[in-house]
Amino acid sequence: MRHKTRDEMESILQSYQNHEGKQKDFCAAHGIRANQLHYWRRKLSKAAPVSKANKFIPLKIGAVELTEQIEINYPNGNSVKLPTTTPLALVEQLLQIRC
Questions:
Q1: Is 57 left (phi over 0), alpha (psi -120 to 50) or beta?
Q2: 26, CA 20 to 30 Å: which among 48, 65, 75, 77?
Q3: Hey, is 54 helix, strand or coil?
Q4: Phi, psi at 59, each rounded to 5°
């Protein structure tokens, strides 16, 4: 028996969430055992990030405006405006703050 890839497991679990019949019938239709289904659910739920603080937030850079300020917008809605003469070390510290 071939092992399922993570994408295949996620696809089957998504189908199971939308399934309205018996678990036994679902598993038979997908060629898996009920204990596999439960194992995948546990395995994939543990692989999810525990909290938002541990997630990487990508930096999005839009159109560049020439201003005399540096503005940092945090995911929680707070923002900080700094003069362009602000030391780089301080800007780096502000970018590392977890909100």
A1: beta
A2: 48
A3: helix
A4: -85, 125
The structure tokens 């937030």 sit at 57
DSSP state of 50: S
Its sign, for the CA torsion 37, 42, 46, 52, is positive
Q: Which residues pair with 98 in a beta bridge?
A: none
Contact 57, 75 (CB under 8 A): yes
Nearest residue to 41 (alpha-carbon basis) of 16, 61, 78: 16
